[in-house]
Write a structure and sequence with these properties.
Helix content: 25-40%
Strand order of the largest sheet: 10-9-8-6-11
Strand content: 15-25%
Structural class: alpha+beta
Number of helices: 13
Order of helices and strands: HHHEHHEEHHHEHEHEEEEEHEHEHEEE
Radius of gyration: 28 Å
């Protein structure tokens, strides 16, 4: 009996020794490679297989307010794709500040991402829930003050989502100046640059619209893609799709109005040049029309199927024959024969003789115009001086 008991103890000791040795080996492996073999053993079946899965997982963590390290396990995702993670995530609430990739084990790599929560996230949380902004985020505190001021001045509780969108869009275009970007000023890429400093690139415009719309209770999405700058605005002696433009990275918004999604590009509604106007050429566009000069991953975003809540249709400034267009322009100029005026038309081509009614309006000295688009939908902007 004693011999049997002694043998059992010996077996138990050997088992414990083996377990301890395995644990030591695992710890040594983790120390030299940064990878815990046990973690990989249990998580390798759940390893993420493409960069979109990684972006979705990190986006979820960002939206949950995470500010710090997030560890994910990946398989067969190139380093070049990991470098573009912020562009793929396109998240307003935070971004990836850095990441570390550890050696592959069992066909799986461990990646440690460091998430930095954005000013936008703090501002939205403070605006909606009254959550105090940390003292070490002074720019977020300034941004909150400006957002409260804008929404308090421009919006009321009886407004529809379309009316809120229009007011906020017009404010941004009127008060922000387009910048070509500076490596010395990151704020130009953020909502802070657009709303507090009054200068931003397309990312800043899109972030500002998304933040204001979200605080106003209007559903929206932040879109990243590319665009052909040659079609942004051209004069009457140029043609649509002018090759003088170039394709460049771009950002804009989707906005949910009356149950349907629409494209909104506040950057391109802020025309470049001497004329200081608030354009609505890219206010609530369908996928088909937006695709004339914008490119985006349609699988990542909700479809925008129609033009029912397009600015010109809602404001009764859209025409399908030249007679109605001429009459509308003439009547408007009789009331206010100076400044700028916008309208849109389709189904016909505009020529220098389309607006004959202008000649009947007294006191007008000069009329110039520019157009955006083409035969199926063209936005016309008139510049009238007395």
């Amino acid at each position: 009996m004693e011999r049997k008991k002694s043998r059992l103890i010996k077996i138990l000791i050997e088992i414990v020794v083996v377990i301890v040795m395995v644990m030591i080996i695992f710890k040594l492996v983790e120390y030299f490679t940064g990878v815990n073999p046990m973690d990989n053993l249990f998580k390798r079946k759940e390893a993420l297989l493409n960069i979109n899965e990684v972006a979705a997982m990190l986006t979820h963590e960002v939206d949950q307010g995470v500010d710090g390290e997030v560890v994910l396990y990946i398989k067969d995702i190139p380093d070049e794709e990991l470098k573009s993670i912020n562009y793929i995530m396109s998240n307003l609430n935070g971004s990836i500040d850095s990441y570390s990739v550890y050696p592959k084990l069992f066909g799986v790599r461990r990646v440690s991402f460091t998430i930095v929560r954005s000013d936008n996230s703090y501002v939205f949380d403070a605006y909606k829930n009254g959550t105090p902004i940390p003292q070490n985020r002074p720019e977020a505190q300034k941004l909150l003050v400006r957002v409260k001021q804008i929404l308090g001045d421009k919006l009321s509780g009886v407004m529809t989502d379309y009316q809120k969108e229009l007011k906020l869009h017009d404010y941004l275009v009127e008060h922000c100046t387009y910048s070509h970007g500076s490596s010395e000023n990151d704020n130009e890429y953020r909502a802070y640059g657009a709303l507090v400093e009054g200068e931003a690139v397309c990312n800043g415009y899109a972030e500002a619209m998304a933040l204001m719309l979200s605080c106003a209770g209007v559903q929206n999405q932040y879109v990243v893609g590319t665009a052909n700058s040659g079609s942004r605005r051209y004069s009457s002696d140029q043609q649509a799709g002018d090759e003088s433009g170039r394709t460049e990275n771009h950002a804009w918004n989707l906005v949910l109005v009356n149950g349907t999604w629409y494209h909104l590009d506040a950057t391109w509604d802020d025309p470049m040049g001497d004329e200081e106007i608030v354009s609505h050429a890219y206010f609530n566009m369908s996928d088909d029309l937006m695709a004339r000069d914008h490119i985006w991953d349609k699988e990542k975003y909700d479809p925008c199927p129609d033009m029912s809540w397009n600015y010109f249709r809602r404001e009764n400034a859209y025409f399908e024959n030249s007679y109605d267009l001429d009459r509308y322009v003439t009547q408007r100029l009789m009331i206010r024969p100076y400044g700028t005026m916008e309208c849109a038309f389709s189904q016909f081509e505009m020529t220098n003789t389309t607006l004959t009614g202008i000649n009947t309006v007294p006191t007008i000295k000069k009329v110039m115009y520019s157009t955006i688009g083409g035969f199926n939908f063209t936005v016309l902007t008139l510049y009238v001086s007395q």
